[in-house]
Amino acid sequence: MLESSANGLVWQERCLLTVSREAGSAAYERHLEGPAYQRFHKALGGPRSWWLSAESFFGDAAEHVSTDPVDDERAAIPGRGGFDDGANAWWATSVCDGGPAVHVLTAGYPYSEAVARRLEPVFRAYVEDVAERRGCTDIAMPPKSDYQEES
Fold first, then answer.
1. Which of 40, 55, 58, 86 has the smallest count of CB within 10 Å of its CB?
2. What is the mean pLDDT of residues 49-55?
3. What distance in Å separates the CA atoms of residue 122 and residue 125, rounded to the nearest whole number?
């Protein structure tokens, strides 16, 4: 796990979670017959892209967070949380030290779709940890429906 300091002057925090090749192979084999995993068999080509990245941006940096690098229409909106399926990214917002904060959870494709329904408590734990350490309030998380895997 990689992380940055919780110092109030730090404008970004990041946490990268990944599955080891051995653990990924074991999970892949264990769930290979499951419908969610069968759909992604060809796309996965094995246990690759099994990672999650959680990031938080504060102050001025938070005002420019967009899950779409080309089009700002998908920018995180203060007071709301959501999901951008084009970026495989969930986002939440809060207020830290009187300024905006945006928290983003990104997952590798197609891993994101295979585990989406299990990510709500993971993302919530990350955001609540950041909020507690930094004294953030007014947390807005994505709705539970944003964590449903596609059919």
1. 86
2. 82
3. 5
> Under 8 Å CB-to-CB from 105, ≥6 apart: which residues?
52, 53, 54, 89, 90, 91, 119, 122, 123, 126
- Which residues, in sequence order, are bridge partners of residue 127? none
Contact 106, 79 (CB under 8 A): no
Report how far apart, in Å, the C-alpha atoms of 141 and of each of 8, 20, 32, 59, 72 are.
Answer: 22, 29, 31, 18, 20
Tokens of 96: 């830290």
Tell whether pTM > 0.90. Answer: no
CA dihedral (53, 59, 61, 65) positive or negative: positive
Q: Which amino acid is residue 125, in one-letter code?
A: A
| Residue 14: φ, ψ to 5° | -140, 145
pLDDT at 1: 38
Digit-coded pLDDT (tens) for 105-124: 988 776 676 678 888 999 99
Instruction: State the Cα–Cα distance between residues 55 and 13, nearest whole angstrom.
Output: 6
pLDDT at residue 140 is higher than 70: yes
